[in-house]
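EFMT2 methyltransferase
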Amino acid sequence: MSSPFFPLDSSWDAAYERELQTFQDIGDTGEIWFGEESMVRIIRWLEKHKVPLDSSVLDIGTGNGVLLVELAKSGYMNLTGIDYSPSAIQLSEKVREKEGMSNIKLKVEDFLAPSAELSGFDICIDKGTFDAISLDPSDAVGKRKLYVGSLCRVLKPEGFFLITSCNWTKEELLNEFREGFEILEELPTPKFCFGGRIGNSVTALVFHRK
């Protein structure tokens, strides 16, 4: 379960505690949310658009930190991962240590109330964290608004926001991020066929901060 924090829900921390124990026992980093192709999709986009390797990148809800490790292997040098779950950060620290990626910065942070030092990023990446917040039974609408506000604070003007979601369609995400963001591109994702209609089980979008 390599993915997002879920505020006010201890189940995420418990899940990461289990993954941390499994990693310590057998070296397994755990599940990659949306599969390895989701990481490849992100890295290919960055490479295609010649995003400089020294760009500051924030992984929102980093989970086991595997995306950051893959970004580091691709040459990216200024990488930060945050997660609401202390156990997730412990796990990502272990993964970072195993991979010898000491330049990856990791922090326990609640993205809905980010610290002042969490700012000025060129790229923000979300693989499932916005989904998790959207499922919060306690004021999900309010928390989504807080998320967008936090994103505006931590991402530089003209910066890029890459989001992967299994809960939201393209049109719904465009509506959620209409304040302060414009879409640049929809990335190709796996399609499914049901009842004669073809659709996407995952939505991946790139936004540009105005």
